[in-house]
Amino acid sequence: MGLREEKKQATRTAIADAALGLFLEQGFDRVTVADVARVARVSVNTVFNYFPTKEDLFFDRQEQVVQRLPAAIRDRADGESAVAALRRAFLAELDREEATLGLDPGMAGFWRVVEESAALQARLRQMRDRTEAAIADTLRAQTGVDDAMPPIAAAMIAAVDSALHAAIRRRLLAGEDPDAVRAQVRAAARVAFDALERGLGTYATKGAT
Q1: Class of the CATH-defined domain 62-200
Q2: What is the 3-state secondary structure (H, E, C) of the chain?
Q3: What is the pLDDT along the chain (209 residues), one digit of tens a residue?
């Protein structure tokens, strides 16, 4: 990364951090883009150059979230099915405390802001829909087959992932200890991926003919 890109990334991070602090303190709907620009010490136009909408300011890692499941499918090992790869990737995320899972002790406040904003809930649903579409596109590309299966498998996979994330949010908002939530979600993930494997079997196994 060159100096110019480093400066742009630093500006983006500073804007996102300023926005999150305001959102956590005041709630999403009560904060304006002008408020964020003032705290970040940049112009409103600069904010919009990095974040086209206010929702983008809140979910500043949304592209990473949308692409995490397609990436896990693309990176599966030889002889590994799509579901097996996704199981392995999700459990690895739990082990390394992946930030986008939202299991950090301070994330309860983040999820509370989401619960209080219809706009953020709508964006969360949109991200889920985009994730499902990206999974379907990846399965088509990886299998070389454009039939009914990619969107069906994508819907099943996205539903499981969404349910596991919803369990994390629900338990953290209920005040449960993050370590206990992690253990409970790990057990739920095993059950969920077992069910997926019974349904999808060896679908999209890499190297299969």
Answers
A1: mainly alpha
A2: CCHHHHHHHHHHHHHHHHHHHHHHHHCCCCCCHHHHHHHHCCCHHHHHHHCCCHHHHHCCCHHHHHHHHHHHHHCCCCCCCHHHHHHHHHHHHHHHCCHHHCCCCCHHHHHHHHHCCHHHHHHHHHHHHHHHHHHHHHHHHHHCCCCCHHHHHHHHHHHHHHHHHHHHHHHHHCCCCHHHHHHHHHHHHHHHHHHHHHHHCCCCCCCCC
A3: 688 899 999 999 999 999 999 999 999 999 999 999 999 999 999 999 999 999 999 999 999 999 999 999 999 999 999 999 999 999 999 999 888 888 887 889 999 999 999 999 999 999 999 999 999 999 999 999 999 999 999 999 999 999 999 999 999 999 999 999 999 999 999 999 999 999 998 899 998 75
CATH number listed for the domain at residues 3-53: 1.10.10.60
- Indicate where the chain has its CATH 1.10.357.10 domain(s): 62-200
User: Is 0.70 topped by the overall pTM?
Assistant: yes
